[in-house]
Amino acid sequence: MAVIWHVLGVGSLGSLWATRLARAGLPVRLILRDPARLAAYEAAGGLTLVEQGHSHTLAIPAQTFDAAEPIERLLVACKAYDAEAAVARLAPRLSANAELILLQNGLGSQDAVAAKVPQARCIFASSTEGAFRDGDWRVVFAGHGYTWLGDAKDPTPPTWLNELQTSGIPHEWTPDILTRLWRKLALNCAINPLTVLHDCRNGGLATHHCEVATLCAELSELLGCCGQPAAAEDLHSEVERVIQATAANYSSMYQDVAHGRRTEISYLLGHACAVAARHQCSLPHLTQLQARLITHLQSRGLRTD
Ligand code: NAP
Question: Along the 305 residues of the chain, how does pLDDT read in single tens digits?
């Protein structure tokens, strides 16, 4: 019998995965935070995927943390700051051979989750897919992309990659998932905080070349210090390319701040600065950027962790 995909975190990315898996006929269960959310979901009649203007509602079964069903495969799609506590609550339900797929952006949350469930295999993911919610229990597939998956401790691919294929979830198994995650983190650190501080779209950074170049140099130094030199290759030219290619977009951090939402700063710029400090790697501009961003978040009444 097919293994059930339990999905923790039924937000943008979690819904995008859950609806595509369920649409392919695979067994999926949504794990909702409490009975009130479960009742709201059941009243809505399912989860809706909006793709190219067409919407498709799937009545995927849902449950709360208290359900008895053991969990063999868990897709963790919460924000980085919620993942550790949410997984810890589910730990008693994990079976001995459980596998977790961690979709969190940035770094730091994956190790925190893995420490809570030492018996489980934790597979890290890095995704360039884009999705947002345009209502409760509705997700809009906004940007086609790719998801890289890997396990830094064990290069053996899991057996369920073919289920992603069947579900039309573009993916690739990689032995270098940490390099990919570090690269994405570095790109994020070079672009997202500056878009918040300069109150601009990504393209607005074209007028801040020097600041971007200085940050890229420090980020490259950090990647070298922490054993990720491959993630530093041509970082500056890729950052400039991303700024041009996504000129009309607002970065995810910009959008979080604009909507008064908590950011994932601790797992992005905060993680970079913490690792730099641990390696006694002095990066004055990156440290100053973190201080400026924290002051900005404070001034907006937002959390700084
Ligand atoms: P999101 O829309 O905010 O969804 C997170 C979901 O987690 C919410 O539905 C929230 O529930 C749920 N949640 C949090 N704590 C929970 C708990 N204790 N129990 C049950 N559910 C809980 O976030 P997202 O945009 O999908 O992002 C998830 C991760 O993917 C982030 O690290 C993000 O950076 C990364 N990512 C996102 C995208 C994207 O396009 N969205 C792309 C690439 C990477 P409530 O609804 O009840 O608050």
Answer: 799 999 999 999 999 999 999 999 999 999 999 999 999 999 999 999 999 999 999 999 999 999 999 999 999 999 999 999 999 999 999 999 999 999 999 999 999 999 999 999 999 999 999 999 999 999 999 989 999 999 999 999 999 999 999 999 999 999 999 999 999 999 999 999 999 999 999 999 999 999 999 999 999 999 999 999 999 999 999 999 999 999 999 999 999 999 999 999 999 999 999 999 999 999 999 999 999 999 999 999 999 99
- Out of 33, 50, 76, 124, mutate this one to test ligand 1's pocket (max ligand atoms within 8 Å of CB): namely 33
Q: Is residue 144 part of a domain?
A: yes
- What domain count does the chain have? 2
Domain of 74 in residue numbering reads as 5-175
Q: CA–CA distance from 1 to each of 4, 23, 26, 95, 287 (Å)?
A: 9, 18, 11, 16, 52
Which protein residue's CA is at the shortest distance from atom 43 of ligand 1?
A: 127
**Atom 3 in ligand 1: which residue has the minimum CA distance?**
11
- For ligand 1, whether the C-beta of 11 sits within 6 Å is yes
Q: For residue 196, give the CATH number of its domain.
A: 1.10.1040.10
Question: Do 165 and 231 have their domain in common?
Answer: no
Are 149 and 232 contained in the same domain? Answer: no
The reply to whether 136 and 244 lie within a common domain is: no
Q: Which residue out of 17, 79, 184, 253 has the highest number of ligand 1 atoms within 8 Å of its CB and is therefore the one to mutate?
A: 79
Which atom of ligand 1 is closest in space to residue 133's alpha carbon? Answer: 2
The verdict on the CB of residue 113 being under 6 Å from ligand 1 is: no
* SS3 at position 116: helix
Task: Spell 56-88 as b/e; 16+ CB within 10 A means b.
Answer: eebebebeeeebeeebbbbbbbbbbbbbbebbe
How many Å apart are CA 40 and CA 50, to the nearest integer?
20
170 and 130 within one domain? yes
Would 265 be classed as within a structural domain?
A: yes
Q: 225 alpha carbon to ligand 1 midpoint, in Å?
A: 31
**Residue at a domain's end among 132, 151, 175:** 175
Ligand 1 pocket check for 9: Cβ under 6 Å: yes
Inside any domain, residue 210:
yes
Q: Which of 157, 155, 158, 74 is nearest to 116 (CA)?
A: 74
